[in-house]
Model the fold of this input.
Amino acid sequence: MPLFILEDATGIGNDQIDTFQAFIDCVIIANDDGVGIDDPAGGRQLVTYTRTQNGPPQLRLDDLVNTTFTPDYGSGPQQVDIVVIPGLSGFTLDDGTSFQNNGTALPPNSSGLGGSSLNTTEFCLVIYDTQQNICVARDGTGGDIDLGISNPVVLYHEFSHAFRIVTNALLALTAECDPASPEENAAIVDENDLRTQIANRQGETPELRDPNIHCGQVGCDGGCCIIATVASKSLNSKQIHFLRSVRDHFVRSTEVGYAFFQKFFYDYYSFSPQVCTIMAGNPGIPEHLLEGYINPLLDFWRVMIERSGNNFTDAELGAAFARLHSDRDAARARLAALQRTVAYWLQDESAGSDAPPELIKLLRERAWPSEYMQWALVAPVRIYHEMLTLYLAGADEIKLGRSFNEELDAWSPEMPISDVWAALAADEVVKELEFCENVLLQSATSKKRFHQRLLDRFRDITAIDVVVNGLAVNTGVVQ
Amino acid sequence: MKDRNPKPDDLKASVEAIETVPERKDEKTGRKTPGEMEVVVRMTNDADRALHYISDVRATRYDPSTKTLVVALSDEGREVIPGAIMKLPVFRRIDPRSTAEIRLRVPDRIIKLSRSAPPGELAFETHQLSDAQEVVVEVAWADVPYYKDTRAKADDKRLPAARWEQHKARTKKAIKGGRKPKS
Done:
């Protein structure tokens, strides 16, 4: 009976340890009610398990819980118990390695195995962050790190290491993560067993991790996406494919774009999952959003992509917008939907708004204050709304394009500026500016405004100073 | 011929500011972002060639006897251990005769396994970094971009970036009167 979950310990107390989460993770691994936990004793709680299923995760958990392990690391057999340490924020090993957003299995101190010198005890310690937000390499993609990992899967990955530690069968660990070491490859293969089983339980297609790549990073685009939910409730809808292609090939390919999206997603996912929950109980909301918000947003960005690199004249820009709305009846329906959505969000009683108050509160508290949400999601729809109104009022392509360009000149240089600009070398600043100017800042006015904002923020950063003031000398853009 | 090899002090680091970022909790999900310390570091390259450095925190060490916190942007001294993922360092380049700025965040407390506990007992030490009186930042750098050392032997347990680094830029800042909260 050698598997324990830490409940309390000298030096930290029990409010730092997420014992319950670790127990739940064990239950999810077992997928039955045969998992139990004894009362605390000595700061630890013993895990018990009466297995009823025969899958690899269940067999592994059964082994770990119901076998007394006595490995011989070279000085005779010794009993090695496993202690799970869940959710210890700020946990750091002696060599300075933090376990925020990670997990590990440390062999007993006397074992001489990799990592044993960092373990002060004769237990095998399984340590994992229960608030983790880890992203790993998806199998079959050649190394795309975009696959999330749930807490039970992290714990099961570490159980795989722990099993080989307590059976003295640890495989080679190497300093490289690509290709993964034999030990990590084996743990990922085991991890995929649990991923497969969990997906099968839920009737979903398993999403597996690449066993040959152990590299990972903090943060995937996890959680429920409002846009995906509204747009046909599928992560494979054409709207989602379009936004993904914008994100991955258009914006995220640059340092500044990548940093922008990191901030953007951080803010977006501070409210998007809750909006999904609210929408699940309010089926009218997605109807409002699809034509009154999502499709206008996508059409705005379609025009922006067409405009990038083309330096459109007013007439060309107006024509690009008009081409998207050649069906005037559909355009009129879209405008009506936009107007209804505005009324909906403004809680206009005269318009009969039935927007749930918790939704309005959530968006006002989380979405509206974010400069990233305002710039990327709110202002574009406002501009689109104005252009559609103008178009349907009979404006010709030149007038429409002129108004559109004026709006874009005011909007585009207000793009949020991230700290990453300050860490770029001069040629990288040049490259990033070229991209921004090609895609967004096409007029001299917008370039000048954006350059000034960069200088105001980072005037004493050499690369910014040299590049932006150099451009000023060469082009006269900044005065 | 002029010696073009950079000198060990060609890349300098200086701590510009140290701020506290309080614990945040998402009311709906209950997910907590623990309190953090943010250290703003200014990098200066005095060399006549570009230099390359690690720009994210790889290790944090706290010495309670001297109340010194070391924020290491270096993999030197770190061991290869089993884990859920291996996070590669983030590398940046700084041009000749240039400055740059990076922002580093570390948890506002460090919890370690205690080495003074009785044999067999699992005990911890907690160190609140608000007690720190000095912050040291070490930045690993080299005059060439990071590349994988294909000569690495199986018994060489250094992490790849530790084999790559040539020097460290080291800076320290005394903390007087506490850190200011991040606005």
Notes: Chain B has a mean pLDDT of 86. Chain B touches chain A through 65 residues (CB under 8 Å). The CA atoms of residues 41 and 102 of chain B lie 5 Å apart.
